[in-house]
What does this fold into?
Amino acid sequence: MPPEPSWWYQKSPGFIATGLAPIAGLYGWVLQARFSLAKPYRSRLPVLCAGNFTVGGSGKTPLTRHLCECVRALGKRPVVLSRGYGGRLPGPHWVSTDDKARETGDEPLLLARTGLVVIARDRAAGAQAIEAAANADVIVMDDGLQNPQLHKDLAIVIVDGSRGLGNRRIVPAGPLRAPLASQLPLAHAIVINDTVPGAGDEIGSWLKDQYDGPVLRSATIPSEDAGWLKARRVVAWAGIAGPARFFGLLEQLGAVIVERFAFPDHVAPTPEQATQILHTAQAADAVLVSTEKDVVRLAGQFGPVAELEAATKALPIRLAFSTRDGERLASLVALAIK
It folds into this structure.
């Protein structure tokens, strides 16, 4: 995926966004027509969806994991359904931890480390494959809010508290996947994900004025002890949407970033880039740190890329909710799968 234009996240649209408005309007009209004409498949299993309003990352994968945890807490067995973005397999395919990211995409491979995952570009076909399995009680979609192929019993939308909805224009004029007026009714609840405390106050207040459903708050925190980062010299690298959020989290945890390398979302370093990152860390006497998704993307590679995988320490993350908001989300899940 190419880098997101920086002007997407400027408060005023600017002349580029204004010039692209007619194309964005046509794109939005096509999406709305697709929804109005669709006849979504209704699975016999409850379908939960972790989605977002914008392209790029906002925390869908940690939210997917959290929804799976909610399902397991109710004594049910979840299976994740993913499109497998970035992979070449159309599916339906049950993901194994022995698969490679180039086959399945990086996010399904990461999710397969903690549970069952099916990838399918045709979401209805993927749901049917899961229905045929004896070990499935609930389908949890990683992304797919805007996909009309499959009926959702519960759709939770996550919004990056720092970036919000950008200039609130539709692709390519802005980051919205579809007109917000047509997306808001699809959501049963919205989660504002704060990577920095209080970052989502503004977008949270705005959404509460626009949306009648629950607007919950979460924080991105390490899922393991991260004390080893305190005052540690690190070379950080990431190929995710908004890598600055990851670098900022490292600094919040006390790391001293001596160099940072950012790549487009879902893109792994080339052998030449991997060599540069390794040499930079060695010269700076620093620890290499990246995201779980980035490290899993390197599995099965050779040469400098394999060396980079072995030398990099991943920082696992999760979503943390207040007691009140965590209970509200768990209640929504319970009602959807009862």
In short: Residues 14-37 form the longest helix (24 residues).
